[in-house]
Amino acid sequence: MTTVSLPDKFVQNTKEHLGTQNAEVLFDTLLNTKPVTAVRTNILKQIPTQLELTNPISWCANGFILNARPNFTHIPQLHAGAFYVQESSSMFVGEIVRKLKPNRALDLCAAPGGKSTHISSVIPKHSILVANEVIRPRATILAENVQKWGQGNTIVTSSDAVRFGRMGEYFDLIVVDAPCSGEGMFRKDPQSREQWSWENVNLCADRSRRIVADVWPALQTGGQMIYSTCTFNRLENEETVQWICKNLGAEVVQIQYPQGAMDTGFGAHFFPHLVQGEGLYVALLQKTQPSEDNQNTNSYNAKAMKTPLAKLPKPDTELLKQWIGNNIDANAAEKEFRIGGNAIWAYGEQMAQEIDYIMNFVSVIYSGIEMGVIYHNELKPAHALSLAVDCVFTEESHLDYDEAINFLKKGTLSPNVYKNGVSRVMFEGVGLGWAKGIAGKRVNSLYPAPWRILK
Fold first, then answer.
1. Domain that holds residue 443
2. Nearest partner of 405 among 135, 22, 9, 76, judged by Cα
3. Residue 410 domain-assigned (yes or no)
């Protein structure tokens, strides 16, 4: 075995952490084996036939290891949100959430959206998820992936953690997948080895603690936090969890980890030489005492908040019912519609009650399901509506594979394939977007140009 091309300080630190023999096996895995490719399917959309889903992940109900990495860009269902390409060990975070059944969840460091789309699939039907990314370009990517997933129970925000801390004890679950030194990238990205330094490890540990401390007041007393990283060292992981317990008032919740995960008593490591994955550290914490800022305060008083979104007139509400229903839960209350920013948004009952409160504290860039705009008593539908699992619009144009790829590239569309008027463009049972056929002579693609396949 060899440790060539791994940073000396990383080698030394890992041997102290794991012992020399175990560490050497890890080093060999990082240097001499191929990274794992995994996907997680959307249980509310049809599974793609192009993927060989024969190797299920034991710790994720709908996760699969692939035997080879396909050209994902040319699988239409990726653009429809029927599956998500995600690091396999990180899928365990979503499975923890499945068992916790939160009412209000926050994914604080959410981009590009792997954990958020997973969480949105496993929280109870009437719960809401706030998915946040402080860096705006990354938040835009997060919003795109949330729209593709189509659940309608997610609010995408772009704000610093301290702004959430001002909300009072609002969330019963907060997920912090902390920005880290990225040792879990060493196998699939050799350049990350060159960028690694022990100084950066210390900086990342300090930043993670600041982020957790800033958001901590937003967690209910008795609520839970999932803290995770994709790095291996104890400073960013176990020692940070111990710091949280000592300084903020928390205790580690012991849970059952999958076979191969290394439980240290302060969380567990999914090392790539022990499980099929690139590396995850995860711990579950419970808040044991109120934050000082929240004591003797009434943090949730929605009536005192401004209302940035207006309710829709009843005639417009009736118009929208032909486009969207409640496919996720037939017993759910009807969607409620709000208008703001020149667009109409559809919300489930709880989100409709709470979206205004959230918008008073943080910058919301996407929420619920974007419906579009009403023009001359007709809806001009937003692209997100075509991807929503609750979309019930029945005028559909069904494409074969070549036509679907052409549509996703915004190529010239054949009027022989598409219906006249607005139709939902479908491929193998999932929505790809909208098209408008005009008098059987031409077709306008309504697919968003920034999302098109470039090659």
1. 394-455
2. 76
3. yes
Domain-located, residue 409: yes
Of 151, 130, 143, the C-alpha closest to 354 is 130
Give the chain's domain count: 1
Confidence of residue 2 (pLDDT cuts 50, 70, 90): very low
Token pair for residue 310? Answer: 């207006």
* 152-175 per-position pLDDT tens digit: 999 999 999 999 999 999 999 999
Separation between Cα atoms, residue 388 and residue 120, nearest integer Å: 13
204 is catalytic: no
Residue 404, H or E segment? helix 401-408
Which residues touch 363 (CB under 8 Å, ≥6 apart)? 157, 158, 159
Quick one: angle between helices 136-149 and 114-122, nearest 10?
A: 40
**Closest among 62, 123, 51 to 91, alpha carbons compared:** 62
19: left (phi over 0), alpha (psi -120 to 50) or beta: left
DSSP code at position 249: I
Q: Which one is catalytic: 204, 230, 245, 391?
A: 230
Give the residue among 141, 75, 140 at the shortest CA–CA distance from 408: 75
What are the Cα distances from residue 432, in Å, to 152, 263, 316, 389, 442?
16, 42, 25, 12, 19
pLDDT of residue 271: 98
Q: Is residue 67 domain-resident? A: no
Spell out a b/e string for 103-142, using b for 16 or more CB atoms within 10 Å of the CB, else e: ebbbbbbbbbbbbbbbbbbbbeeebbbbbbbbeeebbbeb
Cα 303 to its chain centre, rounded Å, is: 30
C-alpha–C-alpha distance, residues 277 and 184, integer Å:
9
Q: Residue 445 domain-assigned?
A: yes
Q: Residue 46 and residue 245: Cα distance in Å, rounded?
A: 43
∠ CA(103), CA(141), CA(236), 5° rounding? Answer: 70
CB atoms within 10 A of CB 71: 8
421, two tokens:
């008027």
Q: What CATH number should be reported for the domain holding residue 453?
A: 3.10.450.720
pLDDT of residue 294: 59
- Write down the pTM of the prediction: 0.95
Q: Which of 127, 122, 99 is nearest to 43 (CA)?
A: 122
Q: In whole angstroms, give the CA distance from residue 378 to residue 119.
A: 34
Cα–chain center distance at 190: 26
